[in-house]
Amino acid sequence: MTTMATALPQFPWLTLLIGLPLAGALLCLLQRRSAGECRWLALATTLATLAVSLWLFVTHGDGQSGWLLREDAAWIPRFGIRYTLALDGISLLMVLLTAGLHTVAVLIAWPEQRRVPLFMALLLMLESGLMGVFLAVDGVLVLFYLCWEARLLPMVFLIGIWGEEGRRRAAVRFFLYTLAGSLAMLIAMIALYLLYAAQTGAPSFALADLARTRLTLTQEYLLFGGFMLAFAIKAPLVPFHTWQPDALSESPAAGSVDLTGLLLKTGLYGMIRFAFPLFPHATRNSLPFLAALALLGLFHAAWNAYRQDDIKRILAYSSISHLGLVVLGLAAWNATAWQGSILLMVTHGVVTGALFAVVAMLRSRTGTRELAELGGLWGAVPTLSAFFLLFALASLGLPGLANFAGEILVLLGTFRSQPLWALLALPGLVFAAAYLLRLVQGMLWGPAPAARGMMADLTVREWLVLIPLAVLTVWLGLYPAPFLAPLAGPVQAALGGLP
């Protein structure tokens, strides 16, 4: 594998991952193509990006430490700004997830009839921005921050133009929350840059350089707080989560897949890649507080999910609960828990993205998302119902399906370092089973509405969406080793060699 990985060292694979979706978006916008042409162009672009991602996974997914690929060039030398992209095992999995879920999002959005060129262009721009977030390491201001902000506007427009009845309010809340966090991070970034420049006389935005800045404990806590506010809002951690249920429930179907499967992961990724290594003392001292927020989110969101009747809001709160477990694993600060957390980020993206895809298919047939109006689906659409059952069982952590491996690694690692935290988390997993089983029972075997007519089962396009997701759900549950292998080296490096 190493020989294959080094065969083409000069080819800009990482720039290609960012540039392909951006080029597709520009073609949709500037060439005034028809709706049908833009659909096929968007699909071809996402498939090409997925092919590059799979190639990198096959040739570089062997668990090496350090950067697997790196591209570096001078950008604005006067201010120490460079164009630097890098790939390690953690970002490799995030890149693969981004490429896969965007292909799903394009297929789900295929029936869209309004402003199709703009819709597809926004999806592709969002993919390009996400790739940049997961690959940019020039430093924490220019390239990373530009990509961090580049995800914002496409999602705001997707919600505000193509969303449900409450779309404008949801889009505004999403914009304001994200902007508030981004401004806090920007202030912290500028302060860190100025401190490093004052100490060394050589301004730099390189992550490795900024990590060597000498900070007082007060300075470190303040700067750490600025970064963590942005990442906690995006994760989202309770109590910074209130924008998320509205944004997810009001988004169009493709937007919901991107938002829950990918955008929420950027906050967690930001903690791992930037906040923790830049501010190690503040991080270690804040781990109990981070664990408390994670446990609060785990229970608060699970309780709220049980009380909802809108299926998308149930899944929205479910995401907050699951990602609380991810943060708990990061707070446990050992390799087993971290590998479980990062794997759970991937499996959550696959499973929850699949659930939102199924909900979109049901909405197109029934015109509703209310649990009380969706009973009896097992008899009406048995194949679609079987897929929904598979993904719901995976979401609650059934052994042999996707989420189980990540959850059990998080719990094992947390037991090793903080047994009390793990014991407190266990009832949260029981609550997850309660609200998901309520959802499954009500939808599949609850009383069917008297006015419901005949419904078609899966179309060819829907088969193409669900079969790969189902295969991944089973594969990640039964044999997660290929997805854990890339994490061994970077996780050990991030934790300073801790087991």
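(the above was protein one; protein two follows)
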Amino acid sequence: MLSQLPNSITSPSVWQLINWIADPIEFQRRCSQKYGDIFSIRLSGVGSYVIIGNPQAIQEIFNQDAKFDIGRANELAKPLIGQNSLMLMDGGRHRRERKLLMPPFHGEKLQAYAKQICLITEQIASQWQVGQTFVARSVMQKVSLEVILQIVFGLSEGERYQQLKPLLTSWLDMTDSPLRSSMLFLRFLQKDWGMWTPWGQMKQRQRQVHDLLQAEITEKRAKQDDKRGDVLSLMMAARDETGQAMSDEELRDELLTILFAGHETTSTTLSWAFYQIHQNPDILEKLQHELDSLGDNNNPMEIAQLPYLTAVCQETLRMYPVLPVLFPRITKSSINIAGYKFDAETTLMPSIYLVHYREDLYPNAKQFKPERFMGRQYSAAEYLPFGGGSRRCLGYALAQLEMKLVLATVLSKYQLVSVEDKPVKMQRRGFTLAPTGGVRMMMTGKRQMAPIF
């Protein structure tokens, strides 16, 4: 049993941090080629991490999640989402909050959201003009933002809705490049000197978002309308075992967590899906044939069960992980994982990227091949776009439903082509990874099919 940190990267910690911010995928790829699928990195001013790209080791971690502090390991995100976010909780408080938040994202509630997702998509796509070039990620941002506003916040009109839309977009766009994202990792840049500094601008917008969300929460509390089906109303109605509801601060921070976890990630994944579908005519043809085979059956939940559509979404999530790694996990006491003995306060960080590009799991991993998901079931430690263990993303079912229905709505009604003249690469966008340039597309015509809703 080895007790030292495995395969420590020897380059200066400042250089490692620069590489992590600039291109975490390439940094991991180079390190894994040299050191294998378990190695240690030191990020200057941030901390030391053991990167794990071995599925067996990751399964061992998931099986022992109670032995880690995970919320405490996510401190980097606190300035954005607040201290009352589920992401920053551990132990009993994490279990309580997760139980309160779970119902709106599963079961019958999803069916109620499905038609709304289709309507939002059609409303935005109907504005396209033949021959017009557009950026897929920007359009998908509009779709996913409307989904958040209408389905999660319960807002579809009024002054507060009109104020939140541009404010949320401008706030999220403040970290739209590796350079601008660096303020999330470099604490000396996190100085609030008003609108003179990027951090001051970010905090100012955050305060404006807080005020608008608080006003919405206050108004909902006053109305006490039990019939509303939006996520916020359901969160407000939820009670724990002692009859306690979530506080305004908890509600507000959880809404921001859902915004960051659901809006940015879904719009990015959809833009990658449109990119690959329109780079591969045979995949587009198969998808359209599958959608056409439904005929007049326009039940969104049945569309979401289509096997090839599902496989395309799964392969997109495999090939383009929105996060380069899973939530870090800090050992509470010494623990044995994969033949290593890790001391207390060691931070382990499972790598989505390294697992999803293992040739033994995914032959020709750099190729987009949806079929690989039609003949095989992968374990929770082999395929982990939504995390795993006690921290699996609560909204994974809604995110997958949104992906499938947006793709189905667009592909059944519109003919698009990619206008990218060279391969699109991933770049850092805040804590996430997104396509450089956002994927440029063009509408060339409409398809004659019945709407799917």
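Reviewer note on protein two: Residues 43 and 130 are 48 Å apart (CA to CA).
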